[in-house]
Specification:
445 residues, mainly alpha, three-stranded antiparallel sheet, 49% helix, 6% strand, DNA-binding
DNA sequence: AAGTCTTGCAACCGCGGGCTA
DNA sequence: TTAGCCCGCGGTTGCAAGACT
């Protein structure tokens, strides 16, 4: 595999980004799109490698980022998603509009892990620590036994051991609805934090609907009559068989049920809040690097970040609003300078980016798999959707002329992102399901 | 007030996969 | 088929700021 050529180049800046660098990168991307990342630094006049530019943009400068502390709902969702997806931060991030994989990863490592441990939950397996310790002890003793046996020359036994260590455990380990138990515990976490309880709009339903719709609507390799309960632990045959689950997580689904219910009394009684409530985030100042942004003079809109607590949106010098630090969403909706800037990716990006950024002009252009995924996405991606009632409410009647004018470009941005997320979701849930061989399903019927 | 420890998070690094010539 | 390029991901590091002694 070839490595990124920039890795070998000398005299490239590393470390924290200066406001000037941010400004250059933002200017460049708002004007031309990123195209090929490797060419961005050169075109933008930056002494950075493309990779670094990409990272800075994705993790910090991107317009749709929701900065600030994570809400309790978001944390709970991350925990639930982690129970299902493991350390697949990008996939987890795809379900949290405005959050980056890096941010989530950091949160997990710095905060959530500790919280879970404090509450007696193993953050890796999402099982009670006591249970995990017992398992470890059991495994340790089993290993020592197997080692004794393998030392006698039995290669077969070592193979079995390897299987167990991968938690394949089809015969050895009885599948348990771990996640259901864990989720119940998480609901306690949430309750203890005094969060709202939205009952039905749970992640379980979200996943179930996704999984269900995926299996029922996807035309590729779908089992025509998927009956019985699916144990994901059983499906998780190994690293290359894609359900992408934490190997210790078991979910049960009743695919026959009209409502796609999770087969667990824990789920039926637990009160999990998983809906993202964008209003809960608070814009917090980044500790170190504060971008100071000045847009090109030919740009009809400009935003000056005097500090992170307030900014001014102006249209040709005419101020259209001064926004104080109310909430991140208000900032994003009322103040985001990105709203005021068209993102002409498609115009100047290189071929590949053009393809990626292509926005179908009509429904007929949208491939089926994207369409149905949009349906799946819609209720979940509140913060990222134009249908978000919260956002609409925020716009209210006080929406300014400039905001109306700017909306088009932002909605493009969101549209693009939604599609990307839809595609990602399709990839995550679809690919994995589609990969499951018929024989695998057969085992559950 | 000064030194040390802890925490949070931005950024880097290395790797794997997809694409293309 | 292979090699090179590029992108994206996940793990890790380094550092600034805050907390603590």
């Amino acid at each position: 595999m070839g490595r990124h050529s920039c890795c070998y180049k000398q005299k490239l800046r590393k470390g924290l980004w200066s406001p000037e660098e941010d400004e250059k990168l933002i200017k460049h991307i708002t004007k031309y799109g990123h195209g090929c990342w490797s060419s961005v630094p050169k075109l933008a006049g930056l002494q950075r490698c493309g990779k670094s530019c990409r990272l800075r943009w994705i993790n910090y400068l991107r317009p749709d980022l929701k900065r600030g502390t994570f809400s309790q709902e978001e944390e709970n969702l991350i925990i639930e998603l982690h129970a299902v997806l493991g350390n697949r931060w990008s996939q987890i991030a795809a379900q949290l509009p405005g959050r980056t994989d890096n941010e989530i990863k950091n949160l997990w490592n710095s905060s959530i892990k500790k919280k879970l441990r404090q509450r007696g939950i193993d953050p890796n397996t999402h099982k009670p620590l006591s249970e995990v310790e017992n398992n470890n002890e059991e495994k340790a003793s089993a290993n020592s036994k197997n080692n004794e046996k393998t030392s006698e020359g039995s290669s077969e036994l070592s193979f079995v051991d390897a299987d167990n260590s991968n938690t394949l455990g089809l015969a050895a380990e009885k599948p348990k609805p771990t996640s259901s138990v864990v989720l119940d515990r998480y609901s306690l976490l949430e309750n203890s934090a005094g969060s709202t309880n939205l009952g039905n709009s749970s992640t379980h339903e979200f996943f179930l609907n996704r999984f269900h719709d995926q299996t029922s609507s996807s035309s590729c390799n779908k089992p025509s009559d998927l009956t019985g309960f699916l144990s994901f632990q059983q499906m998780n045959y190994g690293p290359n068989i894609g359900l992408s689950m934490n190997p210790n997580t078991t979910l049960f689904f009743n695919s026959n049920s009209k409502t796609t219910e999770m087969i667990s009394d824990h789920f039926s009684t637990s009160n999990i809040t998983s809906t993202l409530l964008p209003s809960t985030s608070i814009l917090s100042a980044p500790a170190r690097v504060k971008p100071s942004i000045n847009f090109p003079s030919d740009n009809p809109f400009s935003v000056k970040f005097e500090n992170w607590d307030s900014c001014t949106v102006s249209n040709n010098g005419r101020s259209t609003g001064n926004v104080s630090s109310a909430s991140a969403d208000q900032l994003q909706t009322n103040c985001s300078f990105f709203e005021a800037n068209a993102f002409p990716w498609t115009a100047s990006d290189c071929g590949k980016a053009e393809k990626e950024a292509h926005i179908p002009s009509s429904d007929s252009e949208i491939p089926e798999d994207i369409k149905w995924n949009e349906y799946l996405q819609t209720p979940f991606l509140l913060g990222n959707s134009g249908h978000n009632p919260g956002v609409q409410e925020m716009y209210g009647e006080t929406k300014s002329e400039a905001q109306f004018a700017a909306e088009g470009s932002l909605s493009n941005w969101h549209h693009q992102n939604q599609q990307q997320q839809s595609l990602q979701a399709a990839e995550i849930y679809g690919k994995h399901f589609q990969r499951l061989p018929a024989a695998t399903f057969g085992q559950f019927s």
